[in-house]
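Hi L., both proteins are below.
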Amino acid sequence: MRYLIVNADDFGLSAQTNRGIAIAHERGIVTSASVMVREAAAREAFAYAREHGALDLGLHVDLGEWRYRDGEWLPLYHVVDVADERAVSAEVRRQLESFLAMRGAPPTHIDTHQHVHQRSPAKEVLAATADALRIPLRHAAPGIRYCGDFYGQSAEGWPVQEAITTDALVSIVRNLGPGVTELACHPGFDETLDTTYRAERAQEVRALCDPRVKEALAASRVVLTGFSRLPYGAPGPASCA
């Protein structure tokens, strides 16, 4: 069997980002979202989730954002010093407490903005947090492979529009390996965002809602699911097909 979690990052980033995620959930294949609790539209995101119980809701920990310029990564903004373990731990705790206060329940999963938890000390802090809550952490959850192929930029921030077309998404579906895969996406409509990923979001919405994708899921016998419907720590493969 092949199972697919389609997780929309950046829920709460703006009202128009929320709108794109809502459309991709209601008309498309998004089954899960990760909330940026520091952002102004976070409460709106939680309100939407209360009205749409089928949407899993995780915590998208935000410690900062970096932009690739002239051969190096430069900070667009910092929340805390990501090299300071104590500061990272305190900030993760603050964001988790905000999530709990607004949601009234723990997150179904945890991930981080720009995958900052793949480096120490955030790696250890987030791993301990996820383990204490007994929820999956992106890149580290047993039995859940992560796939980041549906993304419209290169590692250095150059446009890769062909990666977020309907054809690209259909190809990802058809080539999924057995077991559970999390596919990340970033749908939205707000091109005024002060972030490295803007214009690509509307194109993602179109692809995620294209009927050909659901047809490919059915033809390939891929089952859409969410983190809350998986047993924590289930065995399985751990890399993107």
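That was the first. Here is the second:
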Amino acid sequence: MVGGHGVRLSERSCVRSAELFLALEADAGARGERSAGEVLIASAVERSDLAAAFPWLLKTELCARFDDEREIVCASRRTMFDDLIIDEHREERPDAETASELLAAAAAARFDEVFAPDQGAARLIERLAFAATALPEEGWPDVSRDGLAARLPVVCRGLTSFAELRRCDWGRALGRELDQRRRGLLDEEVPDRIAVPSGSRVAVDYGQAAAPSGAPILAASIQELFGLQSAPKIARGRVSVAVHLLAPNGRPVQVTTDLDSFWRRTYPEVRKELRARYPKHAWPEDPMNAAPTARPKRRKSRR
């Protein structure tokens, strides 16, 4: 009914198939959210009757909404009598501005479901989060959960669905917020990769759970790090990277920010064990003066 109250026709009513009817006599029904009154006497009416008698209460409007089940912004053209929907026809597409606003609002409520940065964007977010902690004086973009969600009105421009939003290039969106100076500073002081003695450029892990100390991680095989005396420092020298020295099986045999101590005190014992387990790799007695390599070298056989 107009006003939102539910009704049902009495089985005694002569009106059974009319699209619209006037309730001439009805009881209120039980109280409750889903209660419905029973119409005892009804009179069928045509839509044209409403238009003739109450033209000011009839209106047609374009309505846009977010469909939670289909995860898309959709539009429909409704004919209303006061607040009662008489009919509704789906339109192909709502206007772009309305669609963006509705999508952004829906995405903010379900952010964890729709935030799907690719690997490059995820790494940029981790680097910016680290930069904000290690170099706070530079005023980095806010990449906290709330900060990222606050960008949805901009990110959702031109989009109408969660599927499109999940494919959004968050890396590009965040990159636009960095001027040339801060972009250069990020690359220099919070590098995505660090060169190691073997010549490889190894990715740095800035994930929040990367290390118990909170330091970024540089993981490389022991052979690639021969000759590296100290752990690399980043963020204007404020932070030492936690070096994960990897055995040939890819597992760390040591995690340290004090490489000098590792080479002098720990490496001789590690060498004995790994030399027996991985004879195809070179395990020099003096790692500081050995040639680093990214590939295993066979040990020279003795004749």
